[in-house]
Amino acid sequence: MRVLIAPDSFSGTLSARAAADAIAAGWRHRRPGDVLDVLPVADGGLGTVDVLAHLGSPRTAAVEDALGRRVEATWLRLGDTAVVESATACGRDLLPSPSPLAASSSGVGELVCAALGEDVRRVVVGVGNTACTDGGAGLAQALGAWLLGEDGHPLDPGGAALARLARVERSDLDPRLGSVSVVAACDVDAPLLGPEGAARGYGPQKGATPADVDALEAALARYAALAGGDPDAPGAGAGGGLGYGLATFAGATLARGADVVLDLLGLAARVPRADLVVTGEGSFDWQSLRGKAPAAVARAAAAEGVACVVIAGQVGVGRRELGAHGVDAAYALADVAGSVEEAEADAAGWLAEVAASVAGEWSR
pTM for this one? Predict the structure, then answer.
């Protein structure tokens, strides 16, 4: 049997590559005669550069993290395309503790500038797993925009400061943006504002209290009213509104991050060669269905009439909804390990064990 193994990362425990290796190890233990095609995937969030690194030349740049500290962030050159991973500059994992009101996306703007310095023609910005909810304001400032308060002074970093925004000036935006196409590879299709937007939908994941969420929502609404753009566009709310900032200040096209990454990986050519596709991530839930990589893998499999199963740390989607999105079956590590905590304690071991069980059930 030919099996395509294409998982995303299991956040906080395994990279996409480590997850793919664990699934492959378990599968080989149960069905050593099967032919495995191992392809770690991503959706624009954490691990995007890592899964693409074998295709190009990795680069690093010293930029500010979400709190203004200098870090070494990663981007990748693929021919005349630059792939920037926002999470390596302003990711949640880089902070000792959450700072939802003050966290900034300025480091992502610095990464984009580093890529522009190498004379590329296209810049793909992976948008996901960020610590900020600033609507891409920090990115805009790093690209040369002026976000000014009533006193005429530049605003402080962070989403909360946008409540004091009085004027937006674009005259000093980096002119190199005019000679490249920019794509925001969004890990979710959320709008900037509203119950499923950057603040209300995703702020609590970044440490925002209910009061913080209300403050950020109001600040982002003021920002959108003054900056223009389309806050309702699918993906505008990705990365704490980084999708909106890229579209409004860098002229970016908002795209499903998973589709962008899977296209670069050549997934479409590999699915038809498989008898079964196995994908997965840490938690397969409603957010997964809004643009995450495993859902995109399942769609690609369904389009070719190939069965697809999901192996995840947790599964929060019902059987009928799974089927509607091209997933034939889903398996949760927590169900086998006994709890989420036990599953996370040895994610690779449990993943290999569940994969072996799935191989026994699906490989004929």
Answer: 0.90
